[in-house]
Amino acid sequence: MIPISDSPRSRTIPLVNWTLILLNVMIFLFELSLPSRTLDRFLFTWGAVPVRIWGALLGQADPFWLVTLITSQFLHGGWTHILGNMLYLWVFGDNVEDRMGHLRYLVFYLLCGVIAGLIQTFVLFGSRVPLIGASGAIAGVLGAYLVLFPGARVTVLAPYFFFGLGFFEVPAALLLVMWFLLQFINGMAAITTASPSVGGIGWWAHIGGFVAGWLLVRLFARRPPPRPAWPPDWYGW
């Protein structure tokens, strides 16, 4: 199921969310402009390489490499990678930013991405393949959304029977729980097949980011202002 839009309307302009999307797209376009070898060096320098991260944490490597837990969140490996990530951020990020405020949302987003990167590097601790992508940070946004707007309605594009694709409305809680279970199932399967020399989807970054967002959201979110008694709200706490 591909999310297209959601029912809650943001009360504020999601400046941080839009800026994050713009930065990701601009950096990806910069990546496309680089020759192949230069791009490889660029990703290897600014991506989060697990063996370097562990070396920095243990005091055996340059502490600079810890910065890549943030810079790697703005790198992507292809059109499918960035378009999927930015679509999820566009649909779910604005309302989370609305509830947290701009600065707290930015800190929350980056923190979830760092935690997600650490979880993934723990799974692939000996890997020399750079971890890249905003998926872990966006997974944190999804975890926060599940807490803040469990009853929201999300319009998705999904297949039905043998007739092709159609648009449907589903509860946010159902969509996000299904998304998390899919990540968990694939993450468990990936543990037995993970190789230090091979990249792939960072399932455990998704899992770690989602759980981090779910746990941290109440530290960052503000209580919403009172709403009229009618019509009732079904998507907030």
Describe the structure.
The chain has 237 residues and is mostly helical. Helices cover 59% and strands 8% of the residues. It has a single domain (2-220), classed as Rhomboid-like (Rhomboid-like fold, Up-down Bundle), CATH 1.20.1540. It is built from nine helices and three strands. A three-stranded antiparallel β-sheet has the order 1-2-3. The radius of gyration is 18 Å and the shape is globular.
Q: Can I get a quick summary?
A:
The chain is mainly α and 237 residues long. The protein has one domain (2-220): Up-down Bundle (Rhomboid-like fold). The protein has helices at 15-33, 36-46, 50-57, 68-71, 79-100, 102-123, 135-148, 172-193, 203-220; strands at 2-6, 153-159, 165-171.
List the helices and strands and how they pair.
Blueprint: E1 2-6, H1 15-33, H2 36-46, H3 50-57, H4 68-71, H5 79-100, H6 102-123, H7 135-148, E2 153-159, E3 165-171, H8 172-193, H9 203-220
Antiparallel strand pairs: 1-2, 2-3
Helix pairs in contact: 1-5, 3-6, 5-6, 5-7, 6-7, 6-9, 7-8, 7-9, 8-9
Total number of helices: 9
What percent of residues are in strands? 5-15%
Principal-axes geometry comes out as: globular
Largest sheet: 3 strands, antiparallel
Helix fraction, binned, reads 55-70%
The radius of gyration over CA amounts to 18 Å
How does CATH name the architecture?
Answer: Up-down Bundle
Average pLDDT metric: 87
The CATH homologous superfamily: Rhomboid-like
